[in-house]
UniProtKB/TrEMBL annotation:
<dbReference type="InterPro" id="IPR027417">
    <property type="entry name" value="P-loop_NTPase"/>
</dbReference>
<dbReference type="GO" id="GO:0005524">
    <property type="term" value="F:ATP binding"/>
</dbReference>
<keyword id="KW-0067">ATP-binding</keyword>
<keyword id="KW-0547">Nucleotide-binding</keyword>
<dbReference type="Pfam" id="PF00005">
    <property type="entry name" value="ABC_tran"/>
</dbReference>
<dbReference type="InterPro" id="IPR050763">
    <property type="entry name" value="ABC_transporter_ATP-binding"/>
</dbReference>
<dbReference type="InterPro" id="IPR003593">
    <property type="entry name" value="AAA+_ATPase"/>
</dbReference>
<feature type="domain" description="ABC transporter">
    <location>
        <begin position="2"/>
        <end position="228"/>
    </location>
</feature>
<keyword id="KW-0813">Transport</keyword>
<dbReference type="InterPro" id="IPR003439">
    <property type="entry name" value="ABC_transporter-like_ATP-bd"/>
</dbReference>
<protein>
    <submittedName>
        <fullName>ABC transporter ATP-binding protein</fullName>
    </submittedName>
</protein>
Length: 275
């Protein structure tokens, strides 16, 4: 569904995307993870034909991205803060336009509005929406026609945990229908839970990639546990030595498993942060 080979893109001499390659199969959720300025948006813009790479090759739906036309875009859904909506129209009228264009029933539109807790506010003008409500409007706009390929830029940003979980359920349902999902997120837990494959992006380069648990296992201290004491101190010891510390005011004992966030710090020396 998506393939990049040695793609590069620079702006004013600054390398935004530096020799990146990856492949995404049909029906996968692919997490593209990186802080602001790492090259995520540039990559999406190349894949959707909005930008042309300086070198390398990129294909979407079996077609060179430099040859994407309007008919190809009918099979693609894009959620991004660069994709606009009609500010003076209500939530419902914004989405009704897309529903009619794609021949989608209003019943399905209403179902999505209810799932994402927008139905009661459907007559509110888009210009008056909170950040979280705009996110949900743009998400519905992107998924409404059940595209073959879906690009989502931070779909749960600004959402509470309950709505985030509902978005995750919706994305997994789309995945089971064969939709391929390209997801950018700064939420490492989200990526671990719902993505089939991830790539960590830093300063335009992919620094690690693979199935989330495989990446975590690669950097975890197997056979070791972290013991936390009630005074706030903690130590990492081999699992077989745990018994030596029992009775010493321990507050918790858990396996020494890495997280995607800790792996990012280990590889870059920097915290994973978004603006």
């Amino acid at each position: 569904m998506i393939e990049l080979r040695h793609v590069t893109k620079a702006f004013n001499g600054r390398m935004a995307v530096d020799d990146i390659s990856f492949t995404i199969s049909e029906g996968q959720i692919f997490g593209f993870l990186g802080p602001s300025g790492s090259g995520k948006s540039t990559t999406i813009n190349i894949l959707t034909g909005q930008l042309t790479q300086d070198s390398g090759q990129a294909w979407v739906l079996g077609k060179d991205t430099r040859q994407i036309g309007s008919d190809d875009l009918l099979d693609i859904g894009i959620m991004s803060d660069t994709i606009g909506f009609y500010e003076r129209l209500s939530i419902y009228k914004n989405l009704l336009f897309f529903a009619k264009f794609h021949h989608v029933s209003t019943d399905y539109l209403d179902q999505l509005l209810r799932r994402l807790d927008l139905f009661d506010d459907k007559n509110k003008k888009a210009i008056d929406l909170s950040t979280g409500m705009k996110q949900r409007l743009l998400l519905i706009q992107a998924v409404l026609h059940t595209p073959k390929l879906l690009f989502l830029d931070e779909p749960t940003s600004g959402l509470d945990p309950t709505l985030s979980r509902e978005v995750h359920r919706l994305l997994l349902e789309l995945k089971h229908k064969g939709v391929t999902i390209f997801l950018t997120t700064h939420d490492m837990t989200e990526a671990t839970e719902i993505c089939d494959e991830i790539a960590l992006l830093y300063q335009g380069k992919i620094i690690e990639a693979g199935a989330p648990q495989a990446v975590i296992d690669k950097y975890s201290d197997k056979g070791k546990v972290v013991i936390r004491f009630q005074n706030g101190k903690s130590i990492t010891v081999p699992q077989e030595e745990t018994a030596n510390y029992l009775g010493q005011h321990i507050s918790s004992i858990h396996t020494s498993e890495a997280t995607l966030a800790s792996i990012f710090i280990q590889l870059t020396g920097e915290k994973f942060e978004n603006d």
